[in-house]
Design a protein that fits this description.
Layout lengths: L8 E3 L2 E7 L3 H12 L6 E5 L2 E5 L6 H10 L11 E8 L2 H12 L2 E2 L5 E2 L8 E5 L10 E7 L1 H7 L11 E3 L5 E6 L1 E2 L10 E3 L1 E7 L3 H18 L4 E5 L2 E5 L7 H4 L5 H14 L3 E2 L6 E8 L2 H12 L2 E2 L8 E2 L8 E5 L5 H5 L4 E7 L4 H10 L3 E6 L2 E5 L5 E6 L1
Parallel strand pairs: 5-8, 9-11, 18-21, 22-25
Antiparallel strand pairs: 1-2, 2-4, 3-4, 3-15, 5-22, 6-7, 9-18, 10-11, 12-13, 13-14, 14-16, 14-17, 15-16, 19-20, 23-24, 24-25
């Protein structure tokens, strides 16, 4: 796919744009126009703007024209895309495990992708380097309890009884979610660290109307709701922990807002699909949490959680996965020296890659190697990030 105008960038092979917007309502107005162009365009509405990912560049100019008509300006500097890379001597042996754990679909490159295009892709790369000890990076995935049971990963282990490992020892905490509450008014919602409801729609008009209604209800309360539009689907999402009172700092009981959103969806004829909610995040073990966390804040352009006791760092636009840090005992010397079998890959616009690399190195990163448009960097404790331009 070629570059498609100054407002768009090809990011991880997909023509992508971000348009700044002053509210959810104005972002939803643009989303409503976009879904009527094509059902295959992925649209993510946020309180500060809207991300658009095209299935081809056919509709790029029409989307740009709609944004200009609504006085919404493109901001390519806001674009980035995170994925997770697993190295294995036998990728075909670990692929079925992760496909069941995440309910992902096969990707074109032999990896796995989220069919809803929300959670990070899993890329599988062949490597024969021996690494017998546990990684210092693992995935945390929350899905509805019935989906966790159906994944069939076998008996879990660990302190919380939710940990599973693939044939290479790469770990995932597969956590069963819960209903958001006992009220019938929120029965469409699942608590999967985020509070989430996924609604099936039958037409672009219904999809557009639900996005607009959700945006209006959320803006009225000041809540930064996430509204994602996919083919025949509207996903309403609080963001991690944001439905919990101390997380957002608002005078708001989120379950009240959830009830109003559910009522609006049902009034429009949308039907909840309780099997779809999924939340994925990355856990990093570190001896010096502060130093490692500072690196990743700079490298990813993330912001710390507002609560002092919480180590989470989050994408300010809530488009990429949360990173969580937990302390590792300094006595685990060999494990700390071992190179992980898991690393993070960050795609940024090619014209911004050098700037991002400089910020990453200034925050304590160490350049390991580089090739055309790719830079492999280690954080202060050896966890790796590959920056890809484009």
């Amino acid at each position: 796919m070629t570059e498609v105008g100054t407002e768009w960038r090809v990011l991880d092979g997909v023509a992508t744009a971000w348009f700044d917007a002053p509210s959810l309502i104005e972002g939803a107005a643009l989303a409503g126009r976009i879904v009527k162009l094509s059902a295959q365009i992925a649209v993510d509405v946020r309180v500060t703007g809207i991300r658009v990912r095209l299935d081809s560049d056919e509709h790029a100019e029409a989307v740009s024209a709609a944004a200009r008509d609504l006085d919404l300006a493109a901001n390519p500097a806001a674009l980035q895309h995170l994925s997770v890379v697993l190295e294995s001597a036998n990728p075909s042996a670990v692929r079925p495990f992760w496909q069941r754990a995440l309910d992902y679909a096969p990707g074109e490159d032999g990896g796995l992708v989220d069919p809803l295009r929300r959670d990070p892709a899993i890329r599988l790369r062949r490597s024969t380097e021996p690494r017998p000890l546990r990684n210092r990076i693992h995935l945390d995935v929350v899905r509805p309890a019935v989906a966790v049971e159906q994944a069939g990963l076998g008996e879990a282990y660990g302190a919380y009884g939710v940990c599973h490992a693939d044939p290479d020892g790469n770990e995932v905490d597969l956590v069963p979610g819960d209903p958001l509450g006992e009220k019938s008014g929120t029965s469409d919602w699942q608590a999967v660290f985020s509070a989430m409801a996924c609604y099936r729609t039958t037409s672009p008009t219904q999809q557009s109307d639900l996005a607009a209604a959700a945006a209006a209800l959320a803006d009225d309360t000041g809540f930064p709701l996430l509204v994602d539009l996919r083919p025949g689907l509207v996903i309403l999402d609080s963001g991690k922990d944001q439905w919990v009172d101390d997380a957002h700092g608002l005078e708001l009981d989120f379950t009240d807002l959830a009830a109003h959103l559910q009522s609006a969806a049902r009034d429009l004829g949308a039907t909840a699909d309780p099997t779809l909610p999924r939340f994925a995040q990355l856990f990093l073990d570190a001896a010096d949490v502060a130093a490692v966390r500072t690196f990743w804040v700079a490298a990813l352009g993330y912001t710390p959680d507002r609560r002092d006791w919480n180590t989470d760092i989050v994408d300010p636009r809530r488009l990429n996965p949360v990173l969580v840090f937990q302390e590792i005992d300094t006595s685990e010397t060999e494990r700390r020296r071992q190179r992980n079998r898991i690393h993070v890959e960050l795609a940024v616009p090619s014209d911004l890659a050098q700037t991002r690399l400089a910020a990453t190195l200034a925050a304590g990163g160490r350049l390991l190697d580089e090739s055309e448009g790719r830079w492999r960097v280690a954080d202060p404790e050896g966890n790796e990030l590959v920056i890809v331009g484009g």
